[in-house]
Amino acid sequence: MAAGTLSLFWGFELYHHDDLTFDPKRPRGAFNSYTAFRKRVEEGSAVRASHLETPSFKMAAVHWSRGDAEVPSLQKVMGSAYRADLDPGEEQDPRAEIRWVGGETAALQRVQQYLWDEDSLGLDYVGATMTMDPAKSCMRDRAMSKFSPWLAHGCLSPRKLYEEVKRYERERRKNKSTYWITHELLWRDFVRFGSIYAGTSIFLIGGPQNVRPKWSWSSDRERLNRWIEGETGFPFIDCFMRELKATGYCNHMGRETAGWFLIADLGLDWRMAAVWFESVLIDYEPTANWYNWTYRCLPAASKVPIDRLSSVEILKWGTQHDPDATYIKRWIPSLSSLPGTVAREPWRLGLNDSDGGVASDGLRALPKSGQFSVSQGPLEALISMGFDQKDAAMALYQTWEDADAAAALLLSRNGASEAKMDSDDDDLARAVALSLGENPEASGPVSPPQQGFRYGVDYPKPMIQPVSLMNTEQAEDEARQHQSRRDQQIAASKRQKGSGGQSFQKPN
Ligand SMILES: Cc1cc2nc3c(=O)[nH]c(=O)nc-3n(C[C@H](O)[C@H](O)[C@H](O)COP(=O)(O)OP(=O)(O)OC[C@H]3O[C@@H](n4cnc5c(N)ncnc54)[C@H](O)[C@@H]3O)c2cc1C
C-alpha cells in the first residue's frame, strides 16, 4: 500500500476561511451578532468560484477497488445496536412534501427543480428565518428550499448553489426571495465560523454567553418525551415535532419555537432536546444544531417560566402562518374536524372553565360564574345581523367564537323555542342561512363544529396553562387575505412563464 498526504479543503462554507477579513479565532466583534458578521463578510470578502473547489492531484490519482455493489442494510451496519422500533424504514410518510435521496446527482436535480423547473425560488420561496411578513407563510409547500440535508452532508456545495442563484437572478428574476437565500447561506456560515470562536461552549448548558436563568433546569424525562412525541397539547408545537419524528425535517420556525417552548415554558435542560434533534434530523450538522440552540433558543431562558404559556409566538405565528390550521391538521389528523381557530387553540374547548368544558350537546359549556368574554369583531358581525347582543355573545362563547356556527345556533334556537319571528326575521334567517351556504328551508339541528372529537382523549390537554390572544379571528382574516393576494400573484407569474417563450402572430 502506498503512502500519501492528506490535504484538507475549505469547501463547506459559502465564504472561504482564507477570504475572511478577520481570524474567526480572534474575531474583534464579528460574532457579537449575526448582523455584525454579515456586514463584515459582505463588505470585505467575495465568494470564490465553485470550480476552484475541485482538487488538482499532483500525483497519479489513487484507485480504489470497487466496494460492495449493494448498500448494506441498517440492521447489518448497526449489529446489536439496531432497534427495529426506531427504524423508519424506506417508506416515505405520504404527508412529507419531498423525499430526500442522498448524493450529488439528487441534490443537483432538486436545484434544477426548485429554481428552474418550478420557478419556486423567485415566486414561492419564503426562507428559513423569514417569519414576520404576513403575506408569507413558512408552512406552505414550496416555501422552503429543503436543500439543507444535501448541504449538511456535503452533497451540494453552497458556492455552486450561490452561482445558480446568481444565474437565476440574471436569467429569470431578481427579488427579495433571491436575496434571502444568500442571506440564509450566510446564516450557515455564521454558525460555522461562530463555532470556531465559541469552541466547546456550545455544548455547555449556559452556552457561549453563560446564560443563567432564575430557575433550576429540569431534566424531567416524562415532560421531554411529551415534547418529543408531539403530545404537549399545543398544536403549533406538536405538528412540527410529529413531522420531525416522521421525516427528520421540520422548518426553522418549528425548530425555533419548539426550542423556546422547551426552555422558557417547560424549563427543561435544552441539551436533552438538542441530542434528540441530533439523533433525528436528516440535515444534522453539529454547528448548525448546537449553535442555533445556544444562539437562537437559549436566550428564551431569560423569560421567567411561570405556570402559563409565555412563548406567545406559538399563538401569533400559528395564526399568521397557518390561519386555517391546514398544516396543523396535516400532522395532527385528530384535530381535522375542528374549526381552524379551535384546532390551533383547542383549549378554547373549555379547559379553563371551572366545570371542565364540553356540555352534553357538544357545545362549550357556559362558565358557572356567568362571566365570560368574546372577541369584539365576530360579536359585532352577529349584532349587525340582528341578533340580540347577549344571545350572540353566549352563542359565540359556546361555539368557540366560530361566528358561522354561532349564527346557525342562534337561528336553530329561535326556531326551537318557537320564538315568533316576524316576516322580517324570516327574511333575516333566510339571508343568514344563504350566507352560510345552506338551504334556508332545511332547518336541521346544528352540528357542533367539534362533533366526534373528544378533547383530552383524541388530543392531549396542554402541559401548562395556555393563553388565548385577543382578536385572533381578525388576525386570521388578515393573514388569509395577504396570503391569497400573494397566491394570485404567484399563479399569474407562473401562468405567464407557462406561455412565455412562445411567440404569437397577429391573425391577418
Ligand atoms: C434548534 C435548531 C437546530 C437546527 N439544526 C440544524 C441542523 O442540524 N442542520 C441544519 O442544516 N440546519 C439546522 N437548523 C437551521 C435551519 O432550521 C435549517 O437549516 C432549515 O430549516 C433548513 O431548511 P431549508 O433548507 O428549506 O432552508 P432555506 O431557507 O432554504 O435556507 C437555505 C440553507 O441555508 C442554511 N440555513 C438557513 N438557516 C440557517 C440557520 N439558522 N443555521 C444554519 N444554517 C441555516 C441551510 O443549509 C439551508 O438549507 C437548526 C435551527 C434551529 C433553530
TrEMBL record:
<keyword id="KW-0285">Flavoprotein</keyword>
<feature type="domain" description="UBA">
    <location>
        <begin position="373"/>
        <end position="413"/>
    </location>
</feature>
<protein>
    <submittedName>
        <fullName>Cryptochrome DASH, chloroplastic/mitochondrial (Cryptochrome-3)</fullName>
    </submittedName>
</protein>
<feature type="site" description="Electron transfer via tryptophanyl radical">
    <location>
        <position position="270"/>
    </location>
</feature>
<dbReference type="GO" id="GO:0003677">
    <property type="term" value="F:DNA binding"/>
</dbReference>
<dbReference type="InterPro" id="IPR005101">
    <property type="entry name" value="Cryptochr/Photolyase_FAD-bd"/>
</dbReference>
<dbReference type="InterPro" id="IPR036134">
    <property type="entry name" value="Crypto/Photolyase_FAD-like_sf"/>
</dbReference>
<dbReference type="GO" id="GO:0003904">
    <property type="term" value="F:deoxyribodipyrimidine photo-lyase activity"/>
</dbReference>
<dbReference type="InterPro" id="IPR015940">
    <property type="entry name" value="UBA"/>
</dbReference>
<dbReference type="Pfam" id="PF03441">
    <property type="entry name" value="FAD_binding_7"/>
</dbReference>
<feature type="compositionally biased region" description="Basic and acidic residues">
    <location>
        <begin position="477"/>
        <end position="488"/>
    </location>
</feature>
<dbReference type="InterPro" id="IPR002081">
    <property type="entry name" value="Cryptochrome/DNA_photolyase_1"/>
</dbReference>
<dbReference type="InterPro" id="IPR009060">
    <property type="entry name" value="UBA-like_sf"/>
</dbReference>
<dbReference type="InterPro" id="IPR003903">
    <property type="entry name" value="UIM_dom"/>
</dbReference>
<comment type="similarity">
    <text>Belongs to the DNA photolyase class-1 family.</text>
</comment>
<keyword id="KW-0274">FAD</keyword>
<feature type="site" description="Electron transfer via tryptophanyl radical">
    <location>
        <position position="217"/>
    </location>
</feature>
<dbReference type="GO" id="GO:0000719">
    <property type="term" value="P:photoreactive repair"/>
</dbReference>
<feature type="region of interest" description="Disordered">
    <location>
        <begin position="438"/>
        <end position="508"/>
    </location>
</feature>
<feature type="binding site">
    <location>
        <position position="125"/>
    </location>
    <ligand>
        <name>FAD</name>
    </ligand>
</feature>
<dbReference type="GO" id="GO:0071949">
    <property type="term" value="F:FAD binding"/>
</dbReference>
<feature type="site" description="Electron transfer via tryptophanyl radical">
    <location>
        <position position="293"/>
    </location>
</feature>
